[in-house]
């Protein structure tokens, strides 16, 4: 594959004025007629040919101003159509007819069929699989779409924008016409046809316009779309209230399909969703599912302004829409739920995914400057770190200036295909701040490390905080410059009260905010009359790694007293990680796992504190994961030792706190009917966390089996099932529960995914045999991405002891499967392959086995561009 460079960007030679598409739908031979009106851009080469993108296309005909063109005037391959001898200035019309086979489209890019429904996925470069087109995000045009199809099989014919009309069309067929008045890039095009059930509502916008809201799902699933509809209306209200953004068409549609490569897609006026992120009811969806649905419905809706009204000039600017929109959906969820608990979840996710990406072979800047396969850049760096960068702008500027900057962005760039520089300039303009150093966050890959040391001078009453920042080299970026890092802080007195210093020197200090801008910088707080405890990076104001050897006493004080709940959780994590890492050493040395009481005391005090919300206490109980410990260790990883150490430490805490845990099991139980709100979900989370500890203290499946038997919602049911499966695999109670679950939900694909995933993550080397058996099960369906992610993805990403078996056997099986999947769905295969991005950090025996398996992939013939790109980067 060829490298695409940002530096090579230039506008197209031709300006596209309008697009008229006519689809004659057929499962295996769909005819697409594309009428395009162009004119040559001023001051460009008058002889330049028109170069259109294609991907696996079959051309049927090309017309110029409605007359068939001589074959010498154009060159067509499956991947491009080049037309020569075109007018120097006046507009002209090109009509192209292509033939495509939606049924055979297993990549799920372009027009494909999912369970008998025609649907499209055009981002990033899927439109070129439908027709020849200038398929790039800076080509914006107004679209008219005509859809002709068999009426009985496809009563529903949908596309972007507003419905123009429809009628019968010959024998057994009908047609519908749609017009989208908003100029858009091709990646936002969508078409859906088929037979679906409908859930309807309306929304009145802030200016009083009524918008029809329609969610289409498979027949019979309509009741499961009620929560998605509710989340949509709340999102629309929130965007009006928070960002002043009003919806701009008469209709907003969501279609849920069961085969989808990602979560959802923000096509203008016609979002297409993975049904996992639409369908929910208490019997089949967990609290986490509800929260994800709320977040993703919001995310796609928010794209209407950040992505659609203002789109990206080129795919290097992907974070312009994705990072910003993730920031917006994070803020939405924080406002709808508990802000602190939401932040803890975000940071856990950022560290476990993005920090890992940023320190390994796939590290890249939030705004990359080159790529080989754009599909591989829908990463946690672009999305989640991109969101953190936006959050830092908000932190540095403060709420009001941030709002002014966003308003200016919407005003200045509405209708544009914009760049990251355009975005940052809006904030520089409203704040009169020079944001050039800050912009390094977009351009430098790698997570900054900030080393912290403190010194209190009782005589001078000064407290000095010395900070030093470094960013490790990343692929293609050996040397890094110091960044602008906004660190929120508090100084705590021994009684937990906040100390306000008389003055501060050493650099810019805002309200509780240190602006670290130098490689090394000392901030001095004056007039501090007792030695304070420094709480740094409150609410995770900057996505950095702090190297700060705080004493257990100081951490315990923060865990007990900080008013910022995030920092209390962080202090607990900082108490736990050294204990867990030491435990790993002890296991590897064949010693018993022993640790001091500080962690236990702080943890039990927090979970017994009834003034704290249950959801927060549940987060505290979750302790760092095995992946968190591996990251902290940083190399020579032995997943078995990590698992054993963590298990021993949890068992010890479970025994010490058994009475508290048993009390919580009762206190958090309720007879009230299930509701998915954050408060009720928090109580279930704490109850279920307590259950996990109780069964480990008692080393007996009884309580989990009881919980399974009396569960009246999917959160409790799936949690008790995983406790049984993960802690008591093979036992009678576990087998009975797994069989019961399978038969109860045999006809519900999304719930069966949970059944696959729970079993795929049972720790231990038997995991491999288990997933091999499950892959043979008639219920496994390698063509369905959700099922593949539930089984193979869960095993590779979330079962460290099973996947990283010391004999390397799992690597061979998974890599073989990746090669098979690559033939059907390269995007899915490439994503699964990223599970091996940390192979070099494993202890040598496993690392060698991993390298051998990866080399098999690298040596395979006919790899997709997607997998080739990832394997080349992972292996170097
Ligand atoms: N903007 C959407 C990205 C997306 C996508 C990208 C590549 C291949 C398939 C895809 N489906 C959706 C989703 C979003 O971030 O909102
Ligand atoms: Zn998005």
TrEMBL record:
Domain named Peptidase M1 membrane alanine aminopeptidase: residues: 227-438
Entry keyword annotation includes Protease: yes
GO terms for biological process, alphabetical: proteolysis
E.C. no: 3.4.11.2
Occurrences of domain Aminopeptidase N-like N-terminal (ranges): 20-188
Family per record: Belongs to the peptidase M1 family.
Protein name: Aminopeptidase N
Organism: Allorhizobium terrae
Gene designation: pepN
